[in-house]
Amino acid sequence: MGEYLKLKSFIGVHNITNKDLSDKNAVKNISKIFETAKPLNDFLDTSISNLKN
Question: In total, how many domains does the chain have?
Fold first, then answer.
């Protein structure tokens, strides 16, 4: 089953508005979005790395 991970593309999507980008806390808010996505990225990296070994 792990071989199928190599054949997939994963895309994370989060809608942001121009207002979100021009907010004084934009960098902080966008950082939170990336922090939320990081566990999925780590899981996929680990899974694919384990397949290569």
Answer: 1
Cα R_g (the chain), whole angstroms: 15
Which own/partner pairs from 45-53 qualify as long-range (CB within 8 Å, at least 24 positions apart)?
47/2, 47/5, 48/5, 48/6, 50/2, 51/2, 51/3, 51/5, 51/6
Question: Is residue 44 within 8 Å of 5, Cβ to Cβ?
Answer: yes
pTM reported for the whole predicted model: 0.66
- What local confidence, expressed as pLDDT, does residue 28 receive? 97
Whole domain around residue 35: which residue ranges? Answer: 2-52
Q: Which amino acid is at 45?
A: D
